[in-house]
Amino acid sequence: MNRGDFAELTAFVAITEARSFRGAALRLGVTPSALSRTLNRLEQRLGLRLLNRTTRSVSPTEAGELLYAKLRLALASLDAAIEETVALGETPVGTLRLNLPRLAAELILVPRMAGFSALYPGIRLNLVIDDELTDVVAEGFDAGIRNGERLALDMTAVRLTEPYRVAVVGSPDYFARHPQPATPHDLHNHACLNYRWAASGHTYRWRFDEPEEGVLEVEVEGPLVVNDTGIIRQAAITGMGLACLPEASVAAQISAGTLIRVLEPWCKPFPGFYLYHPGRRRTPPALRALISFLQQELVGQLL
Description:
- By secondary structure, the chain is of the alpha/beta class.
- The protein has three domains: 3-88, Winged helix-like DNA-binding domain superfamily/Winged helix DNA-binding domain (Arc Repressor Mutant, subunit A, Orthogonal Bundle); 90-163 and 271-298, D-Maltodextrin-Binding Protein, domain 2; 164-270, D-Maltodextrin-Binding Protein, domain 2 (3-Layer(aba) Sandwich).
- 39% of the residues lie in helices and 23% in strands.
- The protein has ten helices and 15 strands.
- It has helices spanning 3-18, 21-28, 32-46, 62-86, 102-109, 113-119, 172-177, 229-237, 247-256, 285-298; strands at residues 51-53, 58-60, 94-100, 123-129, 143-147, 155-159, 164-170, 192-195, 206-210, 214-218, 224-226, 242-246, 260-262, 269-270, 273-278.
- Strands 7, 8, 11, 12, 13 and 14 form a six-stranded mixed sheet that branches. A five-stranded mixed sheet has the order 4-3-5-15-6.
- It is elongated, with a radius of gyration of 24 Å.
- The relative contact order is 0.15.
- InterPro entries: LysR-type_TF_proteobact-type, LysR_HTH_N, LysR_subst-bd, WH-like_DNA-bd_sf, WH_DNA-bd_sf.
- Pfam families: HTH_1, LysR_substrate.
- This is Transcriptional regulator, LysR family.
- Residues 1-61 form the HTH lysR-type domain.
- Keywords: DNA-binding, Transcription, Transcription regulation.
């Protein structure tokens, strides 16, 4: 196999896995147009159409599925052999692209970035704050951080935190004007500040664990719906309504008395935050360094 043949096959595998020319191009460090030309050369040489393309999606044909199944293991084996050899003299350097929600950035990463940078000055963190379920592979990210309930099954996941609970909170001024809810059902009589996912348009259903009823989801209403948890927290502090946020994000305000917690016995635990990344290839040194650093920093901590 000559060098050009190998490049064509590598490009085909990347496009098939990313289901996107853009995502595969980001992963390989080339332009989408160059990648398209490379795939066209492979299809012309084989005399077969390997991928079906539309303006919105890319999917393998029957021939493409067969070729991918054969190539995936062979290329993975080659990658592992090369990377293990290079790893003997590797230093954690380069740009690390991470996709993570605002809460994970505020609670996990931002407080520890300076310490990480001091230990690994050769690593540059490139962060995209994103509360949606972005496909990190298709969009060219090295890894993402998400709640354990929202992880794709085909990813390698590393636990960063213990499970955490949410807290329903309101300001003293709000409770001076409204009685505290005794059960989650009372939330229908309160002004609730809620989160909406921009891509789907769905609003968050507040989840509780009642002793007799089990898991309960409450669809709340109120004067504010926004896709930013920081704005929700600030609105609650000013007395606009009740908020439902992770304990750690409002712990300081509860301690200071600017927010009052209610419904605590009904707040169910959620899986903790995980760092996840594609598992096919060996973990890059910079990502290994971040995982190790965060695990040491966060061991035993609750969010």
